[in-house]
UniProtKB/TrEMBL annotation:
Alphabetical keyword list: Transferase
The protein's Enzyme Commission number: 2.7.-.-
Any GO MF annotation of the entry: transferase activity
Domain Aminoglycoside phosphotransferase: 41-274
InterPro entries in alphabetical order: AGP_Transferase, Aminoglycoside_PTrfase, Kinase-like_dom_sf
Top-rank EC class of the record's enzyme: transferase
Gene3D superfamilies (UniProt xref): 3.90.1200.10, Phosphorylase Kinase, domain 1
Pfam families: APH
Name under which the protein is recorded: Aminoglycoside phosphotransferase family protein
């Protein structure tokens, strides 16, 4: 079984470092000679990383850009410390790759995690799935910060202030009007964004954040949540943005998640605003290069509009 969302082998960012099988082989030969005899096959890619399956039990993960390499180093440092404190399996780094002339960035090898992506045909009961996801979030958010703070590599915009993002998100709204037109109710989304901006800043402590709990990062086995992957967005900050990806899930999962965490209306409004921000910025940035991701963003935003109208 595979768990990695696949996208076309295209360039998504201006400053990408070329990655192919020959590059990966050269890294293994230089740093992991004990694995050079294992089979190697491209396993998939995301907006930040390219993945190769190594044998039956390993996964090589390489960042697309120098900026994304910081996330690789962050996972290498923190995932071994977080894993024992979480009931749900998460990626286990087994080799911290260092830069070479063939690939000038940090990279990783992980244990392979079996599972299917979260989809309508893989989840048995969406309400149970939403409850289980809430349990993972609650557990992650109660882990001691171990001295980590909202600084450096653990500082990400999604754990900070909505107000700090207003200028560039407003530009993305205008891009969506131009690109999509009347197929998306941009005015309704902008009103929800503005309403959240008017709310007071969160008054809760900072917590650990996964940062991107979208369906492709949630693995399913036997119809239930099995593992959580891709901690590239791992950060410390306010918890509101963590809840934003529930608009990628069916209503039953979203409602069960809300009920399980007993979220108040202000938290929900800010979470929804973060979902809007990621959706409109995704459409704006990937319009020409990644149509499948643009479609995901559109579906999320349409779900937000429909959900708000029904409340």
């Amino acid at each position: 079984m595979t768990f990695i969302g696949k996208i076309p082998d295209v360039t998504l960012h201006d400053n990408e470092v070329p990655i192919d099988e020959a590059v990966v082989r050269s890294l293994l030969e230089a740093q992991c000679p004990e694995w050079t005899g294992l089979s190697l096959a491209r396993a998939g890619a995301g907006t930040d990383n390219v993945m190769y399956r190594l044998g039956d039990d390993l996964l090589v993960r390489l960042p697309r850009t120098a900026d994304k390499a910081r996330s690789v180093r962050k996972e290498q440092e923190w995932l071994p410390r977080l894993a024992p404190l979480l009931a749900c399996p998460i990626p286990e780094p087994v080799h911290a790759g260092t830069p070479t002339t063939a690939f000038p960035l940090s990279w990783s090898v992980y244990r392979w995690l079996d599972g299917n992506e979260t989809q309508p045909d893989t989840v048995q009961d969406w309400a149970t799935f939403g409850t289980d996801l809430a349990a993972f979030v609650r557990e992650l958010h109660t882990i001691d910060l171990m001295g980590a703070t909202h600084t450096g590599d653990l500082s990400w915009y999604r754990g900070g202030s909505l107000q700090a993002c207003d200028q560039w998100i407003s530009t993305c709204f205008e891009d969506c009007r131009t690109m999509i037109g009347e197929e998306l109710d941009v005015d309704a989304l902008k009103r929800l964004w503005d309403d959240a901006l008017a709310l007071p800043e969160p008054s809760v402590p900072h917590v650990w954040l996964h940062g991107d709990l979208k369906p492709t990062n949630l693995l399913v086995q036997e119809g239930a949540l099995h593992a959580v992957i891709d901690f590239g967005g791992l950060s410390v900050g306010y918890p509101d943005a963590e809840h934003s990806t529930v608009w990628d899930l069916p209503h039953q999962a979203r409602q069960a998640y809300w009920n399980a965490l007993n979220l108040d209306d202000r938290t929900w409004a800010r979470a929804r605003a973060w979902a809007i921000a990621v959706g409109v910025s995704g459409i704006s940035y990937y319009w020409q290069t990644y149509p499948a991701f643009v479609a995901e963003c559109r579906a999320r935003l349409q779900a937000i509009v429909a959900d708000a109208a029904a409340r």
